[in-house]
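Posted in: Structural Biology > Protein-Ligand Complexes

Title: Requesting predicted complex, guanosine-5'-monophosphate in pocket

I'd be grateful if someone could produce the 3D structure tokens for the following input. Sequence and ligand are given below.
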Amino acid sequence: MKDNLNTDRRGMMIVLSSPSGAGKTSLSRKLLEKNKNLFLSISFTTRPPRSLEVNESDYFFVSDEKFIDMLNKDEFLEHAKVFDFYYGTPKKPVMNALKGGKDILFDIDWQGTQQLMNSVQDDLVKIFVLPPSAKELEKRLLKRNQDTDETVKKRMSKASDEISHYAEYDYIIINEDFDESLKKINSILIAEGLKRTRQNKIQDVIKSLRDDLF
Ligand code: 5GP
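-- Reply #1 --
Done. Output follows.
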């Protein structure tokens, strides 16, 4: 009887969206730390960096001119304008990672998610993270202390618009307790990875099993 049956699977594109301040960035960091096959898609943005952000690690911070130039050269998989700034996912690193069988995590908004739906629907796993309440969202935005009061106000009023897109997602996580939310997202990743359609070599596995059964 053969052992070491290989059930290699296709890479997944995991989208995490949420209103700003719902805890998505901290969740992403922890997920990346724990899942060695998961890689973050680092976006380009024209937003200025916040105090603790690092260029080429949190974002590629670029000028409007550079962003428009990349857009004209069709270098983005998706892009959107969020809070007066441009954000975009570069095509090349995503395509290379997928080819290498890696899973990719996208921290993008609903506009970007809709664009990905049109191009790579089958590989997408869409997760929406909600704050437990409006008060908690405001508290988290203020605690972050990286935006001006005016920006916080803007982000609060935008949150309602963003939340209205919840139905475009496969999973909803109410981020009340960080560790619990992390566990839930990990369970989603495990279950999605086990989907029959993602297991590239399952036919070989079945054939081999059936051969051994006779
Ligand atoms: P922030 O300025 O707080 O880092 O991000 C603002 C919003 O832009 C967040 O909802 C974030 O998910 C979204 N975002 C970040 N990068 C991208 C991107 O490449 N594409 C799109 N569509 N949204 C992005």
